[in-house]
Amino acid sequence: MINAIEVVRAITLAEKEVDMTPNPSVTVSLLVAGAWMSCESIPASAQEPNPPSTLSGHTDAVRSISFSPDGKTLASGSLDEGIRLWDVATRKGVARLKGHTRAIRSVAFSPDGKTLASGSEDFTIRLWDVATRKEAAPQKSTPSLTLSMAFSPDGKTLAWAGDRTIRLWSVPTHKEIAALEHKDFVWSVSFSPDGKTLASGSDDSTIRLWDVPTHKEIAALKGHVDSVSSVSFSPDGKTLASGGWDKSIRLWDVATRKEVGTLEGHTSAVPSVSFSPDGKTLASGGWDKSIRLWDVATRKEIATLMGHTDGVSSVSFSPDGKTLASGSDDHTIKLWHVPAAKKTGK
Q1: Sign of torsion, CA 124 312 261 317?
Q2: Which of 107, 245, 269, 300 gives 20 to 30 Å between its CA and that of 262?
Q3: How far is it, in rounded angstroms, from Cα 128 to Cα 130?
Q4: Of 156-160, 161-165, 201-205, 338-342, which gets the smallest average pLDDT?
Q5: Cα dihedral 197, 201, 205, 207 in deg (nearest 10)
Q6: Which candidate, 239, 209, 243, places its Cα nearest to that of 223?
């Protein structure tokens, strides 16, 4: 079986050697673990009537973005080893947090907005004081790189994953309190709004639901036919969205553990999904360079946002739902005014 992490890293390295013109149509062939793969980049469609704001400063792929709870600050983590903080109102960078020595894979704000967590390929997790821009606690050494992390709604627990194990870490004591096992690499973790359930998406093509108080697995959701790269709970906790390497997005009823919808439209892997604060819209970012907006009730695509010149690795709505941020392998972050999104007519 081809290791998905090897594939992503190989794609990133190959893209750096390709001259990306404004509307390229490039096919990159990769030899990974003895198997050839083709990755086709798709030309952008017509420009949006209201172009997004572009935040530039990173020198490599932006793999994770996170809004602060008050919506005033956006954090970004990049393969350039840097974490940047941006003022959302002015669209200006306000700080760069230095300390990691390898690529940043995940950033997440605590629920009170006072702390930012970051996970890296340098096998450490760091907690930063947002006000002082300094490390708030000694770095936590990890047995693997960190691909995803999430704070519990009460801010007392940090879940993170990077190998086959999801680890729960007590934020006040800085101690590991549980280890939850998948059969393969875990790409994404997400807490339910009430903090009682943790969802995880893995290379084993499953989504697993875990009871947080008991640390026990309560369900394995099967439907994707390839790695599950992103999971996200709706604000009411009733629906779970998942994005996968099979190019699909799936919606699951959390109570019944049943799949209730499949959203299709992306032409490549979907590494990120995110619900709007009112739960009515789902955003997805794809390696096909597009961001798609979906009506959750009708399961229909309502808008396609084009503008990035490389794969979209991370999408996130602002707390007021008016802005959608996207991070891309083109080294930029874009801020989209959601009401201005062009309808697709689908």
Answers
A1: positive
A2: 107
A3: 6
A4: 338-342
A5: 10
A6: 243
Same domain, 244 and 301: yes
Q: Which domain holds residue 72?
A: 45-340
Q: What is the DSSP string of 40-71?
A: E-----SPPSSPPEEE---SS-EEEEEE-TTS
What mean pLDDT do residues 32-57 have?
Answer: 51
Q: CATH code at 117?
A: 2.130.10.10
Question: Closest by alpha carbon to 179, among 194, 192, 202, 162?
Answer: 162
Instruction: Report the DSSP beta bridge partners of residue 284.
Output: 273, 292
Host H or E run for residue 29: strand 27-32
**What is the pLDDT, as a whole number, of residue 34?**
29
Q: What angle do CA 39, 293, 5 make, to 5 degrees?
A: 35
Tell whether 14 is covered by a domain.
Answer: yes
- 202 plus 285 within the same structural domain: yes
Cα–Cα distance, 70 to 319 (Å, whole number): 7
pLDDT for the residue numbered 324: 98
The verdict on residue 325 lying in a domain is yes
List b or e across 64-100, with b for residues whose CB sees 16 or more CB atoms inside 10 angstroms: bbbbbeebebbbbbbbbbbbbbbebeeeebebebebb
Backbone angles phi, psi at 7, to 5 degrees: -65, -50
User: Rounded to whole angstroms, what are the CA distances from 327 to 35, 126, 132, 222, 317?
Assistant: 29, 21, 25, 28, 12
282, 334: one domain: yes
pLDDT tens digits, one per residue of 100-148: 999 999 999 999 999 999 999 999 999 999 999 999 877 778 888 899 9
Same domain, 60 and 37: no
Please report the DSSP string for 243-283 in residue order: EETTSEEEEEETTTTEEEEEEE--SS---EEEE-TTSSEEE
